[in-house]
Amino acid sequence: MLSELIKVKEWYIEEKTKKDYLEKAVNNLGADLERVEKRMSLLQLAREKLSVIGIETQNKVKGFMEGSVNKGLKEVMGQEYEFKIDFQVNRNQPEAFLSVLKNDLPYLLNGEETGGSVLDVVSFLMRLVIWAMKPDRTSGFFALDEPFKFLDEDKFDGVGCLLKELRDQMGIQFLIVSHDEEIVDLADRVWECTQGRDGVSELKER
């Protein structure tokens, strides 16, 4: 009888030990779960904050780029043109879609004469705007090869005013390679490049 009581006592102690261990493990898991939930809550809060910051940054970029490009575009092409940026999220990645409106209607930059003019001007202005946004931007010197190749002849006066305005306000210098006499007439200084008899190019200031 005594031996049976001893066995029951040992069994009880063993089972109680298991019970205490399981209760401790459950409590630890509960604490771990609470910490995980707290971290997930903080991560969600951080994600929301980053999303807000991202949207605010996009809006600032959008406003600066649209404003800067439209100022030059309207000066050269006319008030009926408007440059737009539309930010969209595809596969969790933000993408920017660029477009031009004419009289509030979509305008295709299809490489045709008028479309090419708009594309030339927008490309030129976008390059300047991206340069201006860089915190560690290089000096304001741009070497451009036929930047207004498709520009209509009646738009060169506007380009001339734009280039001089950029030069005076931002201290930008432009070295432009072009066959268009209209561009040549806008320059402060002109060099003519010809091929010599020995095949070596020669520069001569006009």
Brief summary:
With 206 residues, the protein is of the alpha+beta class. The chain has helices at residues 2-77, 113-133, 156-170, 181-186, and strands at 81-90, 93-102, 105-107, 141-145, 173-177, 191-195, 201-205. The relative contact order is 0.07.
Explain what you see.
By secondary structure, the protein is of the alpha+beta class. The protein is 57% helix and 21% strand. The protein is built from 4 helices and 7 strands. It has a 3-stranded antiparallel sheet. Strands 4-5 form a two-stranded parallel sheet. A hairpin with a 2-residue loop joins strand 1 (81-90) and strand 2. The longest helix has 76 residues, at 2-77. The chain is elongated. The model has no long low-confidence stretch (mean pLDDT 82).
